[in-house]
Design goal:
By secondary structure, the chain is mainly alpha-helical. The protein contains 10 helices and 2 strands. Helix 1 crosses helix 2 and helix 1 packs antiparallel against helix 3. The protein starts with 13 loop residues before the first strand and ends in a 19-residue tail after the last helix. The relative contact order is 0.14.
Length: about 220
């Protein structure tokens, strides 16, 4: 790629990782998930419930935020770049199995953790949180429309909803903790660009210049 003489110096050391659509979907989804987690805490932790009060309002905010959770993703499907990223997240290759084995062995050497645009851990997290969100949405609807289902269904839905909510909270805390430990990854989600050095170090199989700056390793599949 030939740089113009008046091009910013940073363009020679950075690559585009995410477009506007991917960043928008992530931010709105994160905000809605945050509202769900905070309102759930206010509903189930007595100290928070006493501090906030207005339980009926908190319940309504929790319900509508939960219903809205799939909306950003569905809207993002209008973006070709976002659909491409979903394809990469949903595609596991041999190098992902190598990455997972290294993670289980706590082998932190980058050479033992090959990754395309997304590493295997990110792919597992994305799949798990998507499935968990659908389960939470389904059980939440059963709890909301109580007159449509038998008591046993509602009781089971409440049990699953409550315990899965706790699990999601723990997983999200781990996700946020890992993000806090990687400022360059956060910058990629904030500005869309990352340094070439970070990309080579963390995602050695990702070659964005070969795929209009949005691609992944061609062998991943």
């Amino acid at each position: 790629m030939t740089l113009r003489a008046d091009a910013p110096a940073s363009s020679a050391t950075e690559v585009r990782r995410f477009g506007r659509s991917q960043r928008w979907v992530h931010r709105v989804t994160a905000a809605l998930m945050g509202v769900c987690v905070v309102t759930a805490a206010c509903l189930y932790i007595p100290q928070f419930a006493e501090l906030v009060g207005r339980r009926e309002l908190v319940v309504r905010v929790h319900e509508w935020a939960g219903l809205a959770l799939p909306v950003p993703l569905l809207a993002g499907l209008a973006s070709r770049a976002f659909r491409a990223d979903l394809g990469f997240l949903n595609r596991f290759g041999p190098h992902d199995r190598v990455w997972l084995r290294a993670a289980l062995r706590r082998d932190k050497r980058r050479a033992s953790r090959p990754a395309g645009k997304f590493n295997a851990g990110q792919k597992v997290y994305a799949s798990w949180i998507a499935g968990a969100t659908l389960v939470m949405l389904g059980t939440g609807l059963l709890m909301w429309f109580t007159h449509l289902t038998p008591l046993m269904w509602r009781t089971s839905a409440t049990f699953v909803h409550d315990w899965l909510a706790l699990t999601i909270g723990i997983v999200l805390a781990g996700h946020i903790g890992m993000a806090l430990g990687d400022p360059e990854a956060r910058r990629g989600l904030r500005t869309g660009s990352v340094s070439k050095e970070w990309a080579r170090h963390e995602h050695s199989l990702w070659h964005p210049q070969n795929h209009n700056h949005q691609g992944d390793h061609p062998g991943e599949g």
